[in-house]
């Protein structure tokens, strides 16, 4: 914890430094120039909004897909052996390399790729590389992190509650809304923390399948590597950190984390 918080403190302090344009050396005099540039340059606002939008979309997609799958795994499948075989199947993509999976999705989604070939007889074509491809790829990458917490939450849900709802005449949809969702909401929030935070910090997938689009992590990466402006990269890195912290504070105020 000391190392983690210490590194964040160093990151924050260095974000107020600057780089000498002539020598390229760090100037250790405090300045707000980096933050002023981030706040007054429209392109950074556009990238920030795009990044948050992708993070929200990935979280929503994963939640919509994970809820029914986790429910089937936890409540429909009665065989414990089959149930945990499904858990292994869900986690199996985590065993493959990150870059392997990202480049696989590039092959699938690019124009003339596998998806185009599959839907061509229907007169359709795939989305190509861009924001849609980035969102789908990230949703695939982080999907296990959403399924597993929801599955664990549903496993703790007593079957007697579902039986009682059915005995009282509740249809499956009403049972899902009034019984399952309120009780599994903390687990859903736990999964969303993973998908939202991981998406906010990603910068590799968008370079592979994003076409000309960028996420905020690319601004940090470019200023570390190409531009060599470490103080500006540190200032840019504070944005995803602050967004994730704000999300955690909002979740905490909702009381969802208290019920995990």
What is the CATH superfamily label? MetI-like
Q: What is the C-level CATH assignment?
A: Mainly Alpha
Structural class: mainly alpha
Overall CATH architecture: Orthogonal Bundle
Distance between the termini: 22 Å
Point out poorly predicted stretches: none
Chain-averaged pLDDT: 86
The proportion of residues in beta strands is under 5%
Rounded to the nearest angstrom, the radius of gyration is 22 Å
Number of helices: 12
Order of helices and strands: HEEHHHHHHHHHHH
Shape: globular
User: Could you describe the largest sheet, including whether it forms a barrel?
Assistant: 2 strands, antiparallel
Strand order of the largest sheet: 1-2
CATH topology: MetI-like fold
- Overall strand count: 2
Architecture overview:
The chain is mainly α and 260 residues long. The protein has a single domain, classed as MetI-like (MetI-like fold, Orthogonal Bundle), CATH 1.10.3720. Helices cover 73% and strands 2% of the residues. It is built from 12 helices and 2 strands; from the N terminus they run αββααααααααααα. A two-stranded antiparallel ribbon has the order 1-2. A hairpin with a 6-residue loop joins strand 1 and strand 2. It is globular.
Concise summary:
The chain is mainly alpha-helical and 260 residues long. The chain has helices spanning 2-14, 33-40, 42-76, 80-91, 98-109, 114-119, 131-155, 159-167, 172-200, 205-209, 216-225, 230-254; strands spanning 18-19, 26-27.
Offer a few descriptive terms.
two-stranded antiparallel sheet; mainly alpha; 2% strand; 2 strands; single chain; 260 residues; 12 helices; globular; MetI-like fold
């Amino acid at each position: 914890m000391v190392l983690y918080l210490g590194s964040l403190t160093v990151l924050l302090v260095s974000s107020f430094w600057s780089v000498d344009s002539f020598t390229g050396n760090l100037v250790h005099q405090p300045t707000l120039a980096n933050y002023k540039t981030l706040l007054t340059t429209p392109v950074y606002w556009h990238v920030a909004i795009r990044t948050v939008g992708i993070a929200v979309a990935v979280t929503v997609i994963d939640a919509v897909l994970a809820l029914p799958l986790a429910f089937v795994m936890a409540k429909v499948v009665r065989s414990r052996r089959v149930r945990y075989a499904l858990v292994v199947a869900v986690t199996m993509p985590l065993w493959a390399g990150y870059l392997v999976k990202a480049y696989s999705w590039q092959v699938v989604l690019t124009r003339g790729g596998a998806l185009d070939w599959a839907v061509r007889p229907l007169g359709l074509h795939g989305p190509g590389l861009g924001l849609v491809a980035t969102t789908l790829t990230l949703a695939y990458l982080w999907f296990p992190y959403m399924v597993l917490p929801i599955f664990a939450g549903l496993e703790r849900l007593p079957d007697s509650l579902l039986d009682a709802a059915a005995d009282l005449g509740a249809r499956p949809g009403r049972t899902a809304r009034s019984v399952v969702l309120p009780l599994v909401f903390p687990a859903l929030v736990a999964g969303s923390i993973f998908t939202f935070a991981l998406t906010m910090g990603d910068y590799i997938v968008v370079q592979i399948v994003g076409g000309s689009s960028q996420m905020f992590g690319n601004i940090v990466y470019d200023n570390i590597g190409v531009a060599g402006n470490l103080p500006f990269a540190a200032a840019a890195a504070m944005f995803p950190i602050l967004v994730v912290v704000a999300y955690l504070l909002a979740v905490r105020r909702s009381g969802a984390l208290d019920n995990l």
